[in-house]
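Re: [ENG-882] Designed sequences occasionally contain unexpected residues at chain ends

Forwarding the minimal case from QA. Structure tokens:
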């Protein structure tokens, strides 16, 4: 591979402390994310770059902070949580109870909670590295994981313990054995949501999913498909809309579904936030939620419960989730194998008034929407 370049020689001779991944990236004049992926053997990094990074790491004496080293040097007994400010909702729907659960468990174990924020993956890596290097945290809780989450990949490469609030990979066959997590059984919940609609008498059941970048989106859609199969309903791609994050996204999805020649008489949303967009659409189309159109979702937010009518939704005990995640992280720092630290929990169905037996067939619903729209158009042109 050749000798280390002069810049790296100068860096190695000038640097007397522990070499960090930032130092290694600087010496190679490569982005820190590229160096992280190269060290972790990711397929989108060329073999030449991997070899170059590995050689430089060896010559500069770069070593990640692994579990064994952390235990030898003593634990700080602090849980780390870096909130991503680039998330569309800032985790607002569950943050208060989530933090309370982490704090309560941490305090009971003699630990503390350290909270920071980051607006990008690069900033996350800088913040996480600094907190560890300054010995302010032992590891991190990672909420709302993405598929092949770059935060997890980075921390794993650095040898820093982390626990995910959700599974890292929607494909169980390729699940990372080094990943510890706590998750809600989205598949079973959404399958039961379909069965509930079936039991009410609905035979056209739509689904509005979250962005595919999040692992929970895949599990919830899988539950919807499982529910269809269980009750014997055929899958219809026209009844599925993806990528709904916000209330506006949810409203657009509802308009699209209800504009079909055979619209669904019931729609299941992956999140409360997106489902709230249906309320205005129902008003615009002259529909009564819970009668002409049934609606259910997931999150059990206070806002959903205070809507008129109240939203039927699955509610997660976020305080318990925070406590469980804190407990798992403590176990990791004590040397427990990550694949022994995985838990699946259920959620509670909070029955609102937005779902029930259909008052209209799909054909009647389409006719109602068409007539109402025509009447509005006539009024608007008078």
């Amino acid at each position: 591979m050749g000798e280390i370049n002069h810049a790296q020689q100068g860096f190695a001779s000038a640097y007397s402390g522990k070499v960090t991944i930032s130092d290694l990236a600087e010496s190679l004049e490569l982005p820190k994310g590229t160096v992280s992926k190269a060290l972790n053997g990711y397929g989108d990094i060329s073999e030449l770059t991997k070899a170059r990074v590995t050689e430089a790491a060896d010559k500069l004496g770069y070593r990640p902070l692994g579990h064994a080293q952390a235990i030898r040097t003593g634990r700080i007994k602090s849980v780390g949580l870096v909130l991503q400010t680039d998330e569309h909702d800032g985790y607002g729907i569950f943050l208060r109870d989530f933090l309370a659960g982490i704090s309560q468990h941490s305090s009971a174990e003699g630990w503390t909670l350290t909270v920071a924020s980051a607006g990008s993956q690069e900033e996350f890596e800088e913040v996480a590295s600094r907190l560890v290097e300054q010995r302010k945290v032992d590891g991190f809780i990672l909420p709302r994981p993405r598929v092949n989450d770059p935060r997890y990949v980075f921390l794993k490469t650095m040898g820093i313990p982390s626990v995910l609030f959700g599974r890292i990979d929607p494909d169980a066959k390729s699940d990372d054995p080094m990943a510890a997590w706590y998750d809600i059984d989205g598949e079973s919940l959404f399958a039961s949501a379909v069965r509930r609609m079936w039991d009410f008498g609905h035979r056209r059941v739509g689904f509005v999913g979250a962005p595919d970048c999040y692992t929970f989106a895949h599990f919830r859609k899988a539950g919807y498909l499982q529910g269809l199969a269980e009750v014997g309903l055929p899958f219809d791609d026209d009844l599925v809309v993806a990528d709904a994050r916000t209330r506006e996204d949810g409203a657009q999805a509802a308009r699209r579904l209800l504009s079909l020649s055979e619209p669904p008489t019931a729609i299941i949303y992956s999140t409360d936030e997106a489902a709230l967009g249906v309320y205005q659409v129902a008003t615009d189309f002259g529909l009564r939620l819970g009668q002409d159109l049934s609606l259910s979702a997931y999150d059990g937010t206070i806002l959903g419960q205070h809507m008129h009518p109240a939203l039927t939704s699955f509610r997660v005990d976020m305080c318990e989730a925070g406590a469980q995640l804190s407990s798992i992280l403590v176990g990791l720092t004590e040397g427990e194998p990550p694949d022994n630290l995985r838990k699946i929990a259920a959620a509670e169905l909070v029955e609102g008034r937005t779902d029930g037996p259909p008052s209209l067939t799909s054909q009647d619903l389409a006719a109602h929407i068409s007539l109402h729209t025509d009447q509005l158009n006539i009024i608007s042109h008078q």
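QA comment: On inspection the terminal residues look reasonable. The chain has three domains: 6-60, 76-165+322-345, 186-315+352-377. Proposing we downgrade this to a documentation issue.
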